[in-house]
Amino acid sequence: MSVFTPVPEAVLSQWLKNYAIGRLTELKGISAGVQNSNFFVTTTLGRYVLTLFEGIGRAELPYYLHLMAHLARHGLPVPAPIANRDNEYLGTIKDKPAALVMRLSGASVMAPDEHHCTRVGAMLAGLHLAGMSYGRRQPNPRGPAWRTQTAARVHAYLPEAEQALLDREIAFQATIDTDALPAGAIHADLFRDNILWDGEVIGGVIDFYFAGNDTLLFDVAVTLNDWCSLDDGSLDPVRSDAFLHAYHAERPFSDAERAAWPAMLRAAALRFWLSRAEDFHLPREGEMVLVKDPDEYRDILRQRIAWSPALPAV
Ligand SMILES: Nc1ncnc2c1ncn2[C@@H]1O[C@H](COP(=O)(O)OP(=O)(O)O)[C@@H](O)[C@H]1O
Ligand SMILES: N[C@@H](CCOP(=O)(O)O)C(=O)O
């Protein structure tokens, strides 16, 4: 269940008067999703998704919405935000920032094979290439500074062995210099539930609300860790190869990226171990987030420390 703020039809009908998309014919809460209230909205002119942002500050939202508009303009299956009659993407419903985007077709595939991973690799490279001409800048909200601060917050709640793992990883990550790595706008949360499949084709890439500017390789690592891991956290070599080669074919990896890759896979695993551990041990009052299993990402981190695949060579 993730309609945290109900929206009555009468409220939405009134709100839609400031848009040029016709009259409301259907409003349905969406049960998936973990951080915002989402609704399918059908009008006499089309199908949309309404999001009420539950935890993200109003100041951060234009970066995400304009990034989605930019990527959609570049031909990628990203939901274009809908501007209202004041030419704004962002409005307010029930005192929450709210936005409408196009509804895209498809459904998530939670047990992907190598063919899915090939398409996801190519799609991620496409997002990075198109993102290079995006003019706005906003740091990755879950970047190195956040990781260090969050590690300090969750440390006391972890068993001793995990504290030692965390200390070692934070110390290791502090030695990594990412200055030579290509950077740009990254999705930063391209998990299986954020890609909609229309048959074998990607019909939608959604949920840009963790996006920001960071190294492109961090995004590659985040995506690979979710799409290509086995139950014990180790990597499926077939899916990993398919994903990495498809990405490399569109945006070839540099030597600096090849050198930084094992550390980046670990940084990406650490990021989700920390966010899940924080949601688990330190739930914020009044903030509604569905907690996912932190141990899954602790295990992925341990596996990446033990072994990482090489990036494809030129
Ligand atoms: N533009 C869209 N087109 C079609 N379905 C969407 C779209 N945006 C969201 N959804 C649906 O809503 C669900 C929750 O969206 P998501 O952005 O992941 O929520 P949250 O931000 O709360 O994690 C998705 O799993 C998907 O089914
Ligand atoms: N993908 C993250 C949590 C963010 O959830 P989303 O539904 O907004 O993608 C995780 O798995 O920890």
Outline:
It catalyses: L-homoserine + ATP = O-phospho-L-homoserine + ADP + H(+). This protein is an alpha+beta fold and 314 residues long.
Category from helices, strands and their pairing: alpha+beta
What's the helix count? Answer: 9
Mean pLDDT: 96
Helix content: 40-55%
The counted number of beta strands is 9
Strand order of the largest sheet: 1-2-3-5-4
- Unreliable spans are none
CATH class of the largest domain: Alpha Beta
CATH topology of the largest domain: Aminoglycoside 3'-phosphotransferase, Chain: A, domain 2
Task: Describe the main β-sheet briefly.
Answer: 5 strands, antiparallel
**Total number of domains:** 2
Q: H/E order of the elements?
A: HEEEHEEHHHEEEEHHHH
CATH architecture of the largest domain: Alpha-Beta Complex
**Proportion of residues in extended strands:** 5-15%
Coarse morphology: globular
Give the names of the bound compounds. Answer: adenosine-5'-diphosphate, ligand LJ64HWYM
User: Using only CA atoms, what is the Rg?
Assistant: 20 Å
Oligomer: single chain
The N- and C-terminal alpha carbons lie at a distance of 46 Å
Provide the CATH superfamily of the largest domain. Answer: Aminoglycoside phosphotransferase (APH), C-terminal lobe
